[in-house]
Amino acid sequence: MNTFAAMNADDSKKTRKGVSKESRRKAKRILKYFKPHRKVFAIGFVFLILSSAISTLFPELMGRLVAAGSLPKSSSDSIWKLNSINSIAIVLVIVFAFQALFSFMRVYIFSYVTERALKSLRAEIFSHILRLPMSFFDQRQVGELNSRISADITLLQDTFITTIAEFIRQTIMVLVCGTLITLISWKLTLVILASLPPMILVAALFGKFIKKLSNQVQNEIADSNIIVQEAYSGISNVKSFANENYERKRYDSVISSVLKLGMKRAKWRSGFISFILLFMMSTIALVIWYGAILQSQGDIEAEDMSRFILLAVFVGASFGSLPDLYSKLVKAIGATEHLMDLMDETSEALNPDHEPIKLKGRVEFKDLDFHYPARPDVQVLHKINFQAEPGEQIAVVGSSGAGKSTIASLILRFYDPTSGSILFDEKDHLSYDLSALRSEMAIVPQEVMLFGGSIRENIAYGKPGATEQEIIEAAKKANAHDFINEFPDGYETAVGDRGIQLSGGQRQRIAIARAILNDPTILILDEATSSLDSESEMLVQDALTKLMEGRTSFVIAHRLSTIRNADKILVLHKGKLVEIGKHDELFAQKDSIYHKLCTFQFMNETTEA
Ligand SMILES: Nc1ncnc2c1ncn2[C@@H]1O[C@H](COP(=O)(O)OP(=O)(O)OP(=O)(O)O)[C@@H](O)[C@H]1O
Ligand SMILES: [Mg+2]
């Protein structure tokens, strides 16, 4: 079952069982964001009560208007009658006007408060999620997470602007108009009340079944969306394998079952709606029939009868809207709970206002064991021990999956070692502030990610607030200045999703410029696996050499030719550090793993050439 399906099943479970105390407690925390605006909110609430109160005048006045028209026609009364018809009509118009004014104020004020509360909620969620540890992101699909958050927030927006207000308004309507009809005729009211239990029972049964079908439809739609999403984001794979037809068929089969389920739901829905209509109409007929009998017995006046019918229609409409509003509120509580769960995830101990530190750059791994939090059963690193002296160039080699990138992640403190420790300048990593420690490091990753914006902004990412001169200087050192200047817009050229696409080598040089600006003590280079042509390879290599000067550098090397001059080479094999030494020493041992790696690659290179 996919995550969406799981979430839906989860939601439906909640709705079926009602809302637990725990959920309500969690949902209440949303009020924190409304608190700063509570005075404005209170004013909105007054307008809500006013507009609700005034809506209850409506059926009453209309009833009176109709009743005034049907007053017996006697000459002495006719002037009075016309007067009263006109004055009721004028009062109605005034009521309409106030209703419009109050509703405007209510919606505006609630929106004013809600938009502000949700802005701070959005900001807090974003900054909280940014601070969550890597393990959080390992276990989630980020796109899905994001769309769920937007959906939850939209639901909250609807809830605080309309749903709550509507719920209160309709409840007031039912109570006030309900009291009025009881006062007019308790006998007729009893007839209506008697019709309620069977209607509620049928609605509940049908509703449950339709809800189940709706959940199934939603799950199928989520499945179909995953296919679409995968196909679009992997479009180059789809095209290169000429699998358009395969994808179309895959999608077709899912949407066919969406259609089938949708039609099944439609059958039940139509049945439900026609049943409710039939039942309601019969009840109205019954009330009017019984009312006529009462009228003929002199139990109720003709004018009261018309008032009663109008009021009863309003009670019915308001009452009918309550279940839907209620289920929206339950959904909103679920959404809030989900958001609060995210806020409860423990974040990293980051401190943006940290005291600046300056490391010498000594790094030591001491008896370090590690497994990823998501996969406790697979130990990735076993008893790793090594030291990197300040300014040394350390190469990390080993076959795919050996644990090279994992070592880089541990140096960057993305994860905690499961046992053993990492020392920076001979002090345990825990004795440093995490933000301060990371500010002393930079990484040039395998896959360089460019942010939407100009090249200048992308380089400045390494040091927000860098001057134009510093940026150009860094670009020159990174061998990027020349190609940047060849673009018509130079440093202002837009890159990222909406901008121009840069080649792999160009992107790497931007990342190198970023790292140069950042001026880290400890540098991590995850060499790109995709090979560059020899000219850009040379440019990148030259830029890297300049970048590494005077810094402790860890180079995860795929091409062994680039690490001949490394001070130490760490050879990883299945998570164990099996060999440490310089190229010449390691290569001289004919039975070393390093020797094997080298000869294997050398053979490949010669056959390629
Ligand atoms: N986020 C993660 N969660 C769980 N396991 C992971 C995670 N990242 C990597 N692994 C596992 O840890 C092991 C080491 O992976 P790592 O990425 O360090 O290998 P590598 O040496 O960098 O390989 P490559 O040369 O292919 O990049 C692999 O078995 C991998 O499946
Ligand atoms: Mg790797």
Question: What can you tell me about this protein's structure?
Answer:
This protein has 609 residues and is of the alpha/beta class. Helix 4 (38-69) runs antiparallel to helix 5 (75-130) and helix 4 packs across helix 7. Strands 6-9-10-3-11-12 form a six-stranded mixed sheet, with helices on both faces. Residues 1-17 have low confidence and may be disordered. Among the domains are: 186-299; 444-519, P-loop containing nucleotide triphosphate hydrolases (Rossmann fold). It has 20 helices and twelve strands. The two termini are 48 Å apart. Strand 1 (363-371) and strand 2 (379-388) form a beta hairpin. 66% of the residues lie in helices and 10% in strands. The chain is elongated and about 120 Å long. Magnesium ion binds at residues 404-405.
Summed up:
The chain contains 20 helices and 12 strands. It is α/β, with parallel strands linked by helices and 609 residues long.
Q: Helices and strands in order, then pairings?
A:
Blueprint: H1 3-17, H2 21-28, H3 31-34, H4 38-69, H5 75-130, H6 134-138, H7 142-184, H8 186-233, H9 235-240, H10 244-296, H11 302-344, E1 363-371, E2 379-388, E3 393-398, H12 404-411, E4 419-424, E5 427-428, H13 434-438, E6 441-444, E7 453-454, H14 455-460, H15 468-477, H16 481-486, E8 494-495, H17 504-518, E9 522-526, H18 534-548, E10 552-556, E11 568-573, E12 576-581, H19 583-588, H20 593-608
Parallel strand pairs: 3-10, 3-11, 6-9, 9-10
Antiparallel strand pairs: 1-2, 1-4, 4-5, 7-8, 11-12
Helix pairs in contact: 1-8, 2-11, 4-5, 4-7, 4-11, 5-7, 7-8, 7-11, 8-10, 15-17, 17-18
The structure holds adenosine-5'-triphosphate and magnesium ion.
